[in-house]
Specification:
Elements (H helix, E strand, L loop, with lengths): L13 H13 L7 H12 L3 E5 L2 E4 H17 L7 E4 L5 H12 L3 E4 L6 H11 L3 E5 L1 E2 L2 E2 H12 L8 E5 L9 E2 H9 L15 E6 L9 E5 H14 L7 E4 L6 H14 L2 E4 L5 H11 L3 E4 L1 H8 L14 E4 L6 H10 L4 E6 L8 E2 L2 H7 L6 E2 L4 E5 L12 E6 L6 E2 L5 H4 L6 E9 L5 E6 L3 E4 L2 E4 H8 L5 E11 L3 E10 L8 H9 L11 E5 L12 H13 L6
Parallel strand pairs: 1-13, 3-4, 3-5, 5-8, 8-9, 12-13, 14-15, 15-16, 27-28
Antiparallel strand pairs: 1-2, 6-7, 10-11, 11-21, 16-17, 17-18, 19-20, 20-22, 22-23, 24-25, 26-27
Helix pairs in contact: 2-3, 2-4, 2-9, 3-4, 3-7, 5-6, 8-9, 11-12
Length: 561
């Protein structure tokens, strides 16, 4: 089968190849595949725990055996370098084994977030043309076999291109496919080595699909080199090693889950506690029971844990780091966390599916600059702030954030997207607005398109959200524009209440913001109180959907809740 994915992103031209040569010479790219790194780690860590899922504990030795067995099973099914293997699995150990076995063969792993349904999954299948698709039998009352079949019909690929369907934890043998257990068992008799000697580390290893909060999902291609550089940088900055254990409630099909729950154990020797479903009370139990040392994720995870009434009854002394990213991070939230959990370093991190970590602070800088900035560029990463014409701006001036570095992705599966994504010098155009100070600390101020245009004046939603987030009744806030015949757009504050809080009125919220010197033109003119906010698969607020829902409800004269 011919894949639409490319071996090397030659389309981005000579400048990209010059950059690759620089990263190799500087030591950021080391010429080793993920499989080679995994083999070394598993031998070194032996019987230490690699993955903990419910009552299951998988040692590095056992992980090594299962990856080798599954690689053999996939190899017997004809999977080799250049082929694609997709998986739409929850936070189960099978997801880790699938990704690692796939990349060890030199094939491309395509993680698909479990909440996506037929239309979006069909788009991903059509674009990546996987030869194998791994799904759960049932998960959260959804039957994934008919879901896959519907998605494949949506893809329009036809029966000749149909991939092998592999079902994990199946209740019965799938028609026309096989079970994960059977494929694993078939390869156990003759497991393949995973040293990765025949795998080109410059090849595409993983294609991460963006959450699609503003558009259709886009497939970001990462190589063994880009992901290896990401893990080594994080290991040095945080630092992360054998003694560390992450609690991972984010999907292991999302960039943070792939990096911290799958690749960090494989390359750095950490271990991962997998949560199949987010429950803040359960999270506290797992941190205490498994002596979790760090977490990374959306600020809602931290916020909901701090809101648990029995927080002080748990021994959370092992938790040393919580790195917040993926959404607007209120400084007040992190101050509260530091006050209530002494010894915990809370800080912000900035990255994306395309560029997993652009900037952050180390443990020392986090104390002074981790509350109000996203930190400084990781080693080897360059950050620029540019105006609308791409000209570089001086410190303290707001503009678009652009970045390039060894852990930046190679390009999109759909090559047509690359021209508007990279500038002439190979910098990724993030679409985010930010400011750099004289010392290189970055502050993200909002999305280039996350603005409200009121009578021609542009209002940053992020600025208003950060102030509203300090209101004691507010657990979470998103500010979106709503159409208005007189002004063009007006700012609408959509809030989720803190537990037990009484909803503020629009008038009282405006008074609260006036007391904090928010410019009058930026004050929200509508208020919507909701039980929850719609979310993209990453956990971020889905602002496009939220705006559509709010405008529809306002047009129908329905209440905000």
């Amino acid at each position: 089968m011919v894949s639409t994915l490319m071996k090397v992103p030659t389309r981005v031209g000579k400048r990209a190849h010059d950059a690759a040569r620089h990263y190799r010479q500087a030591g950021f790219w080391r010429g080793r595949s993920l499989g080679a790194e995994l083999a070394d780690t598993c031998v070194r860590r032996g019987e230490a725990a690699a993955l903990l899922e419910g009552d299951r504990v998988l040692s590095f030795a056992a992980l090594h055996d299962r990856v080798r067995a599954l690689a053999a099973g996939l190899g017997a099914a004809g999977i080799g370098p250049g082929d694609a293997v997709a998986y739409q699995l929850p936070n189960w150990w099978e997801a880790t084994v699938t990704l690692l076995a796939t990349v060890s063969l030199g094939a491309r792993s395509i993680p698909i977030v479990p909440i996506l349904r037929a239309r979006e999954v069909g788009m991903i299948l059509a674009e990546t043309r996987p030869r194998v698709v791994v799904v759960p039998g049932r998960h959260r009352r959804a039957d994934y076999v008919p879901l896959f079949q519907a998605a494949y019909e949506e893809s329009g690929l036809g029966t000749e291109a149909a991939p092998l369907l592999v079902v994990a934890r199946a209740e019965k043998e799938p028609k026309g496919g096989t079970t994960f257990e059977a494929l694993l068992e078939s390869g156990a008799a003759a497991p393949v080595p995973i040293a990765g000697a025949e795998v080109d580390p410059g090849d595409v290893a993983v294609v991460i699909y963006t959450s699609g909060s503003t558009a259709a999902p886009k497939g970001a291609m990462h190589s063994h080199e880009t992901l290896g550089a990401e893990l080594r940088s994080l290991g040095a900055v945080h630092p992360l090693g054998d003694a560390d254990r992450v609690l991972m409630p984010s999907p292991v099909t999302h960039i943070s889950g792939v990096v911290h729950a799958i690749l960090a154990p494989a390359l750095l020797g950490t271990s991962a506690v997998l949560m199949d479903q987010w429950q803040p009370a359960r999270a506290l139990e797992l941190i205490e029971r498994h002596r979790v040392t760090y977490m990374i994720g959306a600020p809602t995870f931290l916020q909901e844990m701090l809101a648990q009434p029995d927080l002080e009854r748990h021994d959370l002394s092992s938790l040393r780091l919580f790195s917040c990213g993926g959404a607007s991070v209120p400084a007040e939230l992190m101050r509260v966390a530091r006050a209530r959990l002494p010894g915990l370093v809370t800080k912000r991190v900035y990255g994306s599916s395309e560029f997993p970590t652009i900037s952050t602070t180390d443990a020392h800088d986090a104390v002074t600059r981790g509350l109000d900035t996203e930190g400084r560029a990781l080693p080897g990463v360059e950050i620029r702030i540019c105006d609308e014409d791409g000209r570089r701006l001086p410190p303290r001036q707001e503009g678009e954030i652009r970045a390039r570095g060894p852990d930046c992705f190679l390009g999109y599966v759909d090559a047509r997207l690359d021209a508007e994504t990279f500038d002439a010098e190979g910098f990724l155009r993030t679409g985010d607005l930010g400011v750099l100070d004289e010392d290189g600390y970055l502050t993200v101020t909002g999305r280039a398109k996350d603005i409200i245009v009121r009578k021609g004046e542009k209002i940053s939603a992020r600025e208003v959200e950060d102030l509203i987030a300090t209101h004691p009744a507010v657990a979470e806030v998103a500010v979106v524009p709503v159409g208005d015949a007189e002004t063009g757009e007006r700012a609408c504050a959509c809030i989720r209440l803190a537990p037990g809080a009484e909803a503020p009125s629009l008038e009282s919220l405006v008074d609260f913001l006036r007391e904090r010197d928010l410019t009058p033109q930026k004050l929200p003119e509508r208020l919507v109180v909701r039980d929850d906010l719609p979310r993209a698969p990453s956990g971020k607020v889905h602002k496009k959907l939220l705006r559509e829902e709010v405008e529809r409800h306002l047009a129908e004269g329905r209440p905000g809740r």
